[in-house]
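Input sequence (298 aa), recorded before submission:
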Amino acid sequence: MSFSLPLRLPLPRPSTLLILLGTLPLTAPTAYLLYLRLTTAPHVTSRTGRYRHRKSTKTSSSSTSSSTESDAEPPSPTPPLSIPSLLPASPSHTIMYERVTSHPLPLSSLKYHDGQEFSNLLTAYLRTTMKAFARTPQARMIRKALEDGRNYDGGGVTVSGKGDVTEVADSFEDRCIDEMRFGIGERVNGVYVVGYRGVGPAGGEEVGGGERVELRLQVPEGYKGPGAAVEGIIVAGVEGVEGDVGSEGERRVVMVNETWLWRAEGEKKVLLEGVIGKWLHGLLAGWLVVKGMGAVMV
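Predicted structure, token format:
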């Protein structure tokens, strides 16, 4: 269940794609992309769409209308808890999401948990996926830009008002990632900062408890290079599956990777709005979920 990216893929030109979790270079060999698809697809489920604000229905007619619309398009996942509070209902913003989940896993197949508390399991899962991403061409380009400082207007790069470019670069290192607990404010892979850790929102697909970490796309202070204006959140978590038990009544969970990107009206479209970008992003996001699963399964 463990796969690795080739280390000699041609590097793409710096762009906003470089700081989005799960993007593959467009120059990747077709055969490899097909291999990646075939080896990850059996283990994950994914969907991508535009977030639709959930409106309450007060009459039977509106409920019927809502039901018909729901049949045509599945309801959007609940937005991250750390997303700007006014954003989900804003008519002047476009919010895109991608949700990738493993197939339901019986608790007996997983390590680092006691059946109720999943903090250690989620930490192990995140360490594995973040180390895997750090080895991709995109992460290497991010790191090189940070270390070169060629996109900055003088001064050093800081982390939450302190530190320097070396400290940011170290967040790509295995030794640093292996020490991370992914608490609030921790930075990983240069541009992701933990904005929330705890239980997921109640109801919907997140029912059944579990735990999640939300990582805000937050470039270091002073960075003015490619992707500085991109806004988004990555969600990684373990979620219980409502009403889903094994043949012996055993509870099951899913491992989750969500990507949320948004833009104001009139701004350049985000990666998940394009057919190719959406496909490539989902491909590697699925690969990361599978990598993480391999680290926490018995």
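Checked by second reader. The longest strand covers residues 231-245.
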